[in-house]
Amino acid sequence: MRGASPDLVRRAVSERDPLPGTAGFAGELDGRLVRDVLGRQPLFSECGDPATWSYDHRDLDDPVAVPAGHARETTGGDAGDDEPIWSLPDPPAATDRDAALDRVRDAVFESVRSVDDDGLAVAFSGGVDSAVVASGVPDAPCYVAGFEGSHDVAAAREAAAAMDRNLTVVELTHEALERAVPEIVAALGRTNPMDVQIVLPLYLLAERVAADGCDRLAVGQGADELFGGYAKVQKAPDDPRVEAETVRGAAREMILTLPDQLERDLLVLRAAGVEPVAPLLHDRVVEAALPLPGALLVDGDRRKVALREAASGVLPESVAEADKKAVQYGTYASRELDRLARQAGFKRRMENHVQRYVESLVE
After folding, report:
1. Alpha-carbon distance values, 334 to 60, 104, 242 (Å)
2. Closest among 146, 133, 140, 302 to 221, alpha carbons compared
3. How far apart (Å, rounded) are the C-alpha atoms in residues 312 and 161?
4. Residue 261 lies in a domain
5. Is 300 among the domain residues?
6. A GO molecular-function term, please (predicted)?
7. What integer pLDDT is reported at residue 232 of this predicted model?
8. In this predicted structure, what is the pLDDT of residue 238?
9. 73, 102: one domain
């Protein structure tokens, strides 16, 4: 069992407790494979032989992921059947603004300050998510990846200076992207361009972290989903990318996308040689974020209101309020992968031109 003791998971199964106080777990328990409610640990079994399983799909011939929040029977007549065990709580919106902010502040900083910094580095983009994580481990080195001139590199430099932190810049190159793409596809089992673009800078950053002697990487994953960091949440219900009629409902939609995203990110970071640490995805933070009303998620053009309020007084104001771009855009990974595709003859007028280029690199 990864992420929690068997006894704790056994109790969580018995009591149907979706947030039993962990940062996620997965593994075999009493003849069943179990995976936590947000899928914070990947877990796979062999199609037709669920007793053969692994945390890495590459160990299996025909892997099938265990769905988040489910248990999969491994033996007997029900072998391969999945039973839903946990569902994400859906509490009513908090009505006491100050109390809700206090819960977020306490949960966030208890989580980031409890991270062991032995062998740890921080993926640091200069946004409030990674800066909050970095604040909890003041002695851990900070790293940012991106092409020179990119938003993330500039933002990380400014934030590191404001926080008096040392920063290592992992400068991306076309050669590095071309080398990394087949390795990422092998780790993921996916050639979807968006997935590849998102993890390219993370993978190359993690490689450098591992080469520098660190074996763990603290990341800010989960903050955008839990605290309303997406433009489509801000624009709900007018954004066609969400079905919800409210900001709060749209944020919950994003939280429910976490299992697929986390599987992608964890597999790639482990393939690069580091174990990810995501303190903002601890159960205590999830529990504090779920009741937040829409006004503590988005206020006009200000997103992640509760997280920024929690960070005020701990981070410099310029960092707590910094805008953040999606990693594939903030690092120029998306732009430059598209450029490489076109240079290789995969023009934009061609359907799925970037995916075709990715597949050509794999071949």
Report:
1. 31, 33, 23
2. 133
3. 17
4. yes
5. yes
6. asparagine synthase (glutamine-hydrolyzing) activity
7. 93
8. 87
9. no
